[in-house]
Amino acid sequence: MGLSPAELSVVVGEMGEPAFRARQIFTALHRRRLRSFDEMTDLPKELRARLAERATTSTLTVESRYVAEDGTRRYLMKTHDNFPVETVFIPEERRDTICFSSQSGCPLKCDFCLTAKLGLLRTLTAGEIVEQIVIALNDAYGVGAKTPHGTNLVAMGAGEPFLAFEPLMKALGVMADPDGLHIVPNRVTVSTAGIVPRIRELAGVADRPHLAVSLAAPTDELRDVLMPINKKWPLKELLAACKEFELSLKPGERFTFEYVMLDGVNDSDVYARQLANLLNRHQLRAKVNLIPHNPAEPLPYCPSPEERVESFKAILEAKGVQAFVRRPRGRDIYAACGQLAALRTTVQPDLHQPA
Ligand code: SF4
Fold this sequence. Notes:
alpha/beta, 12 strands
């Protein structure tokens, strides 16, 4: 699943097969979303058998599937070597959004995030990233069925995508292919906790996804506690890289900040003013998404009350910073931001097969 058409051509060539077979296999895997060589009945039987001897089409298995009241679906998957992978499918009126993971667990220690408690188990491969999307689409619409809406992707599941930079960029290239899923980088948003060298690197990439940077605090003192990666790349350095990125933006590209709202921790009017001043000082025009925290035991944080979020937003706007409040999805199945890796026994899995 992680091979580009050119790489597949090499494999097919080594097997003594004509080059067009590579395109056929790529289309079967990505556009038709087939999950085994056996299903590729347009290939000669003997070739399917030889392919199965030397390769695997799919390695992730779905362990559990939860469906929320609002239609959000959360999948707990397992890699071939037994590491957990979580993916969330969010249906929306005009398009679907799939939130995928870039790592199993996460090495960063954001204090408000449940995934952090796992530590890093393993960085996912490009194939494992692509497979999450294929599995979610097949579950929602059936194997190979045309999807009724466009699909947006967000790299906001488990893991720090910029610590999985190579497999991530490779997966985005594979998914953009018009013969496959055809989800172009312009449909993808990558969220980082602030890996400064990668933000700078992305500023020089031509065909790239949208960028979101998670801030969570307007001072180093508080951010050191909430997002310890700040000790390595403090706000001054982070925002300088963000400015560099902002200057590289082309029409149609998006760059946003994310600010998780933690009741009584980072949501006061004072912090709102500090945040606005900080962004203005760095001459950053990016909008801020305010995300009410999603409670996840045993984390000691609660979501900010609605009035607090509104007051915080009003202060930002009064100081010229565009702010939006993001509606949580799938909270009842622990599918919302920061909740992945929640105890598997807390909700009943929905094990119905897709229609
Ligand atoms: S918020 Fe993201 S970067 Fe931070 S620990 Fe959780 S998964 Fe990792």
